[in-house]
Amino acid sequence: MTAPAARPNDLSAYWMPFTANRRFKAAPRQVVAASGMTYATDDGRTLLDGTAGLWCCNAGHARRPIVEAIQRQAAALDYAPAFQMGHPAAFRLAARLAAMMPGTLDRIFFTNSGSESVDTALKIARAYHQLTGEGTRRRLIGRARGYHGVGFGGLSVGGIPANRRPFEALLPEVDHLPHTYDRAHQAWSRGRPVWGGHLADALDQLVQLHDARTIAAVIVEPVAGSTGVLVPPVGYLERLRTLCDRHGILLIFDEVITGFGRLGGATAAEVFGVVPDMITLAKGLTSGTVPMGAVAVRRTLQDAFMATDGQGIELFHGYTYSGHPLACAAAEAALRLYVDEDLFARAATLATPWADAVHALKGRRHVIDLRTIGLVAGIELEPRSGAPGERGFEAYLRCFERGVLIRTTGDIIALSPPLIVSTDQIAQILDTVAAVLDEID
């Protein structure tokens, strides 16, 4: 039977992710091209990107060095089997990436997304403890309001209720730390809030409840992004590192968002001076051009796997597209571009004018809190009575109509522009948000 031809501009076949499909398809918003800091829409308008796509296009859009590297690679080697074979670009990229990581996190496992990176890190943690004679260490500790992708592992340690509820039951032997945000003590914070470092001590309570000998790993986002930009209090990450060391627990930083310049360094671990045992990466690794993720692993963890008897497979895990040639080409070019244009240092320099522009919104209608760190901002709005999320979504739509792309999570506007943003463009993004807040109910 021959399938019927698709109708021109038929939107029905595509089941869109994290989207109100019926609402979108009644009034679609589509982009057809991108360059630098802007998108072009299908109706001929220009859209200034205030979110680096989805936290990922850190070097901006359609950057020629990345585009040309992908084109060359596609013409030379389109795919290479990832199991029992390799290709030079994967090894070059792993070495380059390892050199950017803090401490001895210089063993790199490639994935295709942040979700896969998280599940990979959780599996490595459990397998490591089993391999080293502590097979009782199976429990995984996440955090309330945490986002770690959409795999069952990431959902299980994640702490956003709407993401979890439809898919219960999730992994067993999982628990959660409380989140770090308290508006009464942290409102209008620029950088790390002073109050809240003690919240890491909740890990001691979980140790008392479950016994340290049952806990494999703790995973946190250094800055929680998708839940609305929750910045770690002073001393919090440091305290988590100390407690994990004390109890023999592995510490995983989910840096899918914070990696590659967002906070002014290669990683948040570097910026905050706290070295975990593993770092999950994606998004900015290729500046969003080709799907790719990675896990940076402390060398001694991998050494344990390599010390096993025999010459067989040390870790029964991987993906068909691990270290895909096109993704490797995109990542190598993106990492070179970050260095050539000194984009991480540029982001650090822009952090102060960025914070100034964001915090100028204090006192605007509906704004109940502002949070900034690096080139990230959370603008929290008072929810409408009986309609949570609607004010935020209306702000998103109106900014789109005015030519600025923002992101909302509930009633929180999250901003994270490409690292190439200019001060004039920062002003345009925040002036547009201010105008929209003045006009919506």
Q: Describe it for me?
A:
- With 441 residues, the protein is of the alpha/beta class.
- It folds into 2 domains: 21-63 and 342-439, Aspartate Aminotransferase, domain 1; 82-340, Aspartate Aminotransferase, domain 2 (3-Layer(aba) Sandwich), CATH 3.40.640.10.
- It has helices at 21-26, 52-55, 64-76, 88-100, 114-131, 152-157, 161-164, 183-186, 202-210, 236-247, 268-272, 299-306, 325-340, 343-359, 390-401, 423-439; strands at residues 31-35, 38-41, 46-49, 107-111, 139-143, 174-177, 215-220, 250-254, 278-281, 293-297, 367-373, 376-381, 404-405, 407-409, 412-415.
- It has a 7-stranded mixed sheet with strand order 4-10-9-8-7-5-6, with helices on both faces. Strands 1-2-3-13 form a 4-stranded mixed sheet. A 4-stranded antiparallel sheet has the order 11-12-15-14, with helices on one face.
- Helix 4 (88-100) runs parallel beside helix 13.
- The longest helix is centred in the first third of the chain and has 18 residues, at 114-131.
- The protein is globular.
- The mean pLDDT is 96.
